[in-house]
Amino acid sequence: MKKILAPAAMLALGALALTGCTDNNADASADGAIDVVATDDSCTVSTDTAPGGTLKFNVKNDGTKINEFYLLADDGLRIVGEVENVGPGVTRDLVVLAPEGSYFASCKPGMVGDGIRSAFTVTAAADGQEVSADRATMQRTAATQYAAYVKDQTEQLVRGTQEFADAFAAGDEAKAKELYAATRMHWERIEPVAESFGDLDPILDAREADLAEGEEFTGWHRAEKDLWAPSGYTKMTGKERQEIADGMVENTKELYDRTQELSYTPDQLANGAKSLLDEVATGKVTGEEETFSHTDLWDFQANMEGAKIAYQDLQPLLVGTDDELDAQLKENFDSLQARLDQYREGDGFKLYTELSKEQVQELSAGVDALSEPLSKLTAAVIK
């Protein structure tokens, strides 16, 4: 079937159908490619703007480390297209379809960390662009984009957990507290995936209240309790902290390894998005998740971001088939984000204990309003 696709649909098609690695060629600049020169500490893009449609990035690694290049959506989380394993002295091409909007170009030296980012703007296309695609292609594209997102989040989780664990084991409580909520956001964004590993999830993320008699209390919430010690609590010894820290690092690396080869289906993305909203409703809005630190709003934000990423990857499948649901989801995501933004402080949020009962009820109402249409997403995208 051949048809004119909306910009969002063209965006999704790019990441799978038009992303690839090719050898360098002498006509790269002549054919309109955007040159990217990546080094160990820089990411130089020849232009920061381009018209909408098919974009070609000619990525050259002039550094000593293996590098990656990403085109990220305006939230800095959703991966529109990526090219990986660009070795020193090697050039690869990334070709994507991108509609008008704001993006980030990002290199990741050593394939670790948040990357070196710069703003990139796609202006209106001079002419409409026709794309031939069927629904199965769009479904595969959504799954591929989400797999790239999970890979990125687990890599950042490994890095952040190591930094947190080092501070915790060393008894540097100020630094460990500073890192705690921000690092956990990488886990919370992909929580349905992490929870699918029934042996890893309990030892990394189980709350004390959820443990059965005789089960060992380990992982993030064990460290949380020690850092924000309640009255009458006996602090861990240095040896005990080291054991908890080592276990967190080891098991998070195992999570990373297991997620690298996972594949997904559209129904898993849609059901995962709904699951993340359920996590907000049952743990974050109630204040039960972060019993000692009260950093529940960081988790709330991350769960919502993860759900939104899954929806955005699937959104092209709604275009022309369920535009009403698409519009409702977009509106309700924006509305819930606006409610949550009221409680931002600096780079984070207020402690959950600082919110009034009325404010908590308002957030809960926003979650309920989004959860209802989100429950219809699975049926809409597997048609």
Distance between the termini: 16 Å
Average pLDDT reading: 87
Low-confidence stretches: 1-29
Helix content: 40-55%
Share in β-strands: 15-25%
Instruction: Give me the CATH superfamily of the largest domain.
Output: M75 peptidase, HXXE motif
Question: What would you note in describing this structure?
Answer:
It is built from twelve helices and 13 strands. It has 383 residues and is an alpha+beta fold. It folds into two domains: 2-133, Cupredoxins -  blue copper proteins (Immunoglobulin-like); 141-381, A middle domain of Talin 1 (Up-down Bundle), CATH 1.20.1420. The strands form four sheets. A five-stranded mixed beta sheet has the order 4-10-9-6-7. A four-stranded mixed beta sheet has the order 3-2-5-8. Helix 1 crosses helix 2, helix 2 packs antiparallel against helix 9 and helix 3 runs parallel beside helix 9.
Describe, in short, the structure shown.
By secondary structure, the chain is an alpha+beta fold. The chain is built from 12 helices and 13 strands.
Key traits:
383 residues, A middle domain of Talin 1, 2 domains, 5-stranded mixed β-sheet, 4-stranded mixed β-sheet, 48% helix, disordered N terminus
List strands and helices in order, with pairings.
Blueprint: E1 2-3, H1 7-17, E2 34-38, E3 43-45, E4 49-51, E5 53-61, E6 67-73, E7 79-86, E8 91-98, E9 101-107, E10 116-123, E11 131-132, H2 135-169, H3 173-189, H4 191-195, H5 201-205, H6 219-227, H7 238-259, H8 266-284, H9 296-314, H10 323-341, E12 344-345, E13 348-349, H11 357-374, H12 377-381
Parallel strand pairs: 2-5, 4-10
Antiparallel strand pairs: 1-11, 2-3, 5-8, 6-7, 6-9, 9-10, 12-13
